[in-house]
Amino acid sequence: MPPVNSKYEWPYPVAKRFPGGFERFSYRTYNWFENRLWPVRPLPFLTATAAATAFQVRDIGLEGIRENVHKLLKPLAISVGSVYTSVFLFRHFLKYFYFSYKGYLFENPKKPSIRTIIWGVLRKVLLAVAPPQLSSCDRLLPNLPLPALQDTVDRYMDSMKHLMPEENYVELLEMSREFVAKEGRSLQRYAWFLHKFTDNYVTSLWETYIYMAGRYPLLINSSVAQCTMYGPSDLIQAYQVARLIYIETIANLALDRQKYMAVGDGIMSTRHYKNIYNGCRIPGQQYDHFQWNKPAKHIILVHDCTWYKVDVCDANGNLYTVDQLAKIVAEVMKRDDKSKGYLRNIASLTTDRRTEWCANRQKFFLDNKHNRRLLDCIETAQFVMSVDGDLNWGVETTEQLSNYMKDMLAGSGANRWVDKTMNYAVDASGRAGATGEHSPCDGAELDHLCENVLNVDKQVLESPSKERQLEIIQMTEEEKKTLKLAEKLGFQEVDGMETEVNRCFEQHLKASDDLHMHSLAFTDFGKGRVKKCGISPDGFLQMAIQLANYYDQGKIVLTYEPGSVRFYANSRTETLRPVTDASCNFVKAMMNQEATQKERRELLKKACGDHVENCKQVMTGNGIDRHLFVLCVLAKGLGYSSPFLEEYANQKWLLSTSNIPNMTNSVDEDTTEDKIMLGASFGAVAQDGYGICYRFAGNRAIMVHITSYHSSPATDSDRFGQHLREAIHTLADLFDEEPSNNNVSKNNNVSKNF
């Protein structure tokens, strides 16, 4: 194990060996029982069963048991049945009281109800007696509730009244009434059956029709970028690559053992964590599917557009150390076996539309025995690691940060195997980021992963001096014999491959050129100042976005923000609609020169309060959009014609936003600017809209990444970034007696510096 800073601990156990088949079978079997018995552990369960059996046969004696082994069967069956019945009943009590109770969300924490107090005591007891593993409680989570049809339609109509002309709203209102009275009732009955016979009536349909049915290219349209810290790296490129490979191999094995931290102490779904490593999205003619694979002993390394297989352990299963991996990576970087011609861009085939990529995958890989083996090597790998060139990183200008973030989202067209869940990238400066494939898991899981990586990389592990790193990466002749060096994946040329590779590469470059990224590293203040104002940080920034958009577009538009429903089994996300009566009143007051600061401040508090209340409603299963989405799918599948659902399905999310949560609080971003995490980004959903991803970097910064498309005359990410910076200051100034000197007029140019 590399040197560890004694002030910090690994967030999961550190394996030294790759598990063999029997070992993996053993711990997976144990976890299978754990997940069906918790809060009782498998060993206490077996002990209680054995004791109950022994009590029943106490009069037979050992000799009697040896002579009549069959006499044990009945007592054993009675013991197993009685002990498990007790566990079963207790687990059902936990499911329908402990895990289903959400009343504490709506109470004053200083004046909790008796039921909340009992719930809190039970939680402390459970955590003390049987602290859950990652998925110990997953089978105890309640099913996602199905809202009443009328309630969903009413909430939807209420959310739309500020987003369209009055005559259009009246027409939509009439459609909604006809829908509830006619086809809506039938569709709701089908949704009820789906709700009763599945643990989550949304997820399977959501994954199929929102993700797997999509025929568009994944990069920019579906992928997400996860990035590193704001500060400089103290590692050279080869050593940073090796360290990330080591850290993520340890994390992969810990996740397979179920030793990752239980999210929310077990009260949140962790169903999709298993999809982070090893798996791969497989293209299909009409629908893709996700292929889950067991932990692999190799990763894929990409250097200078050439693909390599790198083993993470030796022939005996002993994991390579960081130093050993650094030697292997450095050896690859010195090779002269780089791919030539169009084969350098072979990964661009994965950036294509899904139907076309399916056909090319069959023709160029599956139908060719050699290429099929290489494809299997890539698709079963833990992850892909790209060793990139100089991305001209810097924190001197917005342009440099924006270019870096754009590269993390879109890649070069040749250095991402888009189907893999995680594609890491380390540039020449030693900074690391990643491109994530969104279909198998959501942002929260990817954020959890990245926070653990940054915690271990920047805090837990100590860094040798750069001089020492340069010594470490030198490989002796003896090490060349003992270490397994990287294997180049030399693809064979197939008729028609060159034309398709060139087409896909040029197509991706065109899409990448159209992407307009503006990264705003707002370091004037963070959530600390917002909390002092007595309002929600997320509500604060959502209202700033609404105000900035009004500056930019002169109107209020349909806005998307993902909300968590992870209190429920097999859940993903729900839509939190930030546009409310209160938010619109606030924006109007900000544009009204006659409104006083006090009036604006009170309206902001009301808007943020309503936003928090809406968030709680979403968290407890009372969202709008996933219910309507399911009804749309059912209507399509069952042949129902519904003008109301067609109108709903055609709505355009001109503002698509996302707040990156802090999952672990393991990195103290207030200690130094170098520990600020940049966060994530994604492409705008609408061609003439914006994609805005943000996170509060402790009390000292707000990181925002804004995307749009150059081809749209209606949007400009740089312009929106200027408006958002002004809006953030304007909102904060509402709580100051005097306006801050940092307030910027929306007519001024944005500062070149952060």
Automatic annotation (TrEMBL):
Gene Ontology biological process: carnitine metabolic process; fatty acid metabolic process
Active site (record annotation): 438 (proton acceptor)
Annotated Gene Ontology cellular component terms: membrane; mitochondrion
Transmembrane regions: none
Localization (cell): Membrane
Membrane topology summary: Multi-pass membrane protein
Keyword field: Acyltransferase, Fatty acid metabolism, Lipid metabolism, Membrane, Transferase, Transmembrane, Transmembrane helix
MF terms in GO: carnitine O-palmitoyltransferase activity
InterPro entries: Carn_acyl_trans (IPR000542), CAT-like_dom_sf (IPR023213), Cho/carn_acyl_trans (IPR039551), Cho/carn_acyl_trans_2 (IPR042231)
Superkingdom, taxonomy of origin: Eukaryota
Ranges where the Choline/carnitine acyltransferase domain occurs: 144-726
Family: Belongs to the carnitine/choline acetyltransferase family.
Protein name per UniProt: Choline/carnitine acyltransferase domain-containing protein
